[in-house]
Amino acid sequence: MNNHLRIALDLATASVPVLPLRRGKVPFGNCPTCAKNACGGRPNMKTPGPCACPHPCHAWAAATTDPHTLNSHQWATAWRTAAVVAYHPGGAGATVVDLDNAAAIAWARATLPATRTVATTRGEHWIYQGVMQSVNAVRPGVDIKSLMAYARWLGPGTGTTAALPAVVRALAAKEPSSVRKAPQTVTVPFTGQSGACPHRTPAYLDRGLAMAEQRITDASSAVHATVYRTFLAVLSTHGRCGCLTDTHVIRLFTAAQAKGETVRHCTDAWTNARTALGL
């Protein structure tokens, strides 16, 4: 067993989805089975979720924690020729702030809360607990890698992993002047006033999320408006009681993206809905 595969299996045991990268830190190319999306998977990486193909050919979507897949005959050549092990931060519940130079590191030290750090070739990875959209070049020398992205595994790093702070999430948001104004004709009564939780059982929230996902999935037209109204409805009921988690938000974003919405559109709709409700 080569060292890359050994590292990958150790990470997979710790519930970190992993994949091999070729020289140049790039993923392996689409295998013949998946070329031009013949497998029905996600070789273009435009929607979230893993591919069912056993070949490591879909970049971040190929990342897995399944030891049988990692040890499979289909992955053997990739591990023999791999230059480095990578992982899917979002799949591990994490966000990596990739700082590419000394100036970016200085900015992070002055701006961001301390967290686990990993040294890179030219800079540092700052790792936070929590997921968000991935965005490149949020400022000079700074990328964010979380959902639908991969990062090199360069060791466990040092320090204690902190919760993903609002200041990092804000880096992915558009400038206020470019954010679409929330539709003023949509109004949803707000429940759970003053932080009171209206949930009698956990099933209440689960049912609400399932209904919201189905509403988006069933949209045959006006998808943008449907996504916004659905986000608004969810936030009006669950936005103040503190029960919504990143996992719930990802479920809604995933349903919207399956209908063709981009991560940016989802983020705009979510932000506008929160603004409309004063959250």
* Helix run count: 9
Radius of gyration: 20 Å
Beta strand %: 5-15%
- How much helix is in the residues? 25-40%
Q: If you average the pLDDT, what whole number results?
A: 82
- N-C termini distance: 52 Å
Largest sheet: 6 strands, mixed
Structural class, by secondary structure, is alpha+beta
Which segments are poorly predicted (pLDDT under 50) over 5 or more consecutive residues? 175-194
Count of individual beta strands: 10
General form: globular
Give the helices and strands, then pairings:
Blueprint: H1 3-13, E1 18-22, E2 26-27, H2 67-70, H3 73-81, E3 84-87, E4 94-99, H4 102-111, E5 116-119, E6 124-129, E7 135-139, E8 142-145, E9 151-152, E10 162-163, H5 166-171, H6 202-217, H7 223-238, H8 246-258, H9 263-276
Account of the 3D structure:
The protein is α+β, with helices and mostly antiparallel strands. 35% of the residues lie in helices and 14% in strands. Strands 4, 5, 6, 7, 8 and 10 form a 6-stranded mixed beta sheet that branches. A 4-stranded antiparallel beta sheet has the order 2-1-3-9. β1 and β2 form a beta hairpin. α6 runs antiparallel to α7 and α7 packs across α9. The N and C termini lie far apart (52 Å). About 7% of the residues have low confidence.
Q: Which key phrases capture this entry?
A:
279 residues; 6-stranded mixed β-sheet; 10 strands; alpha+beta; 4-stranded antiparallel β-sheet; globular; 14% strand
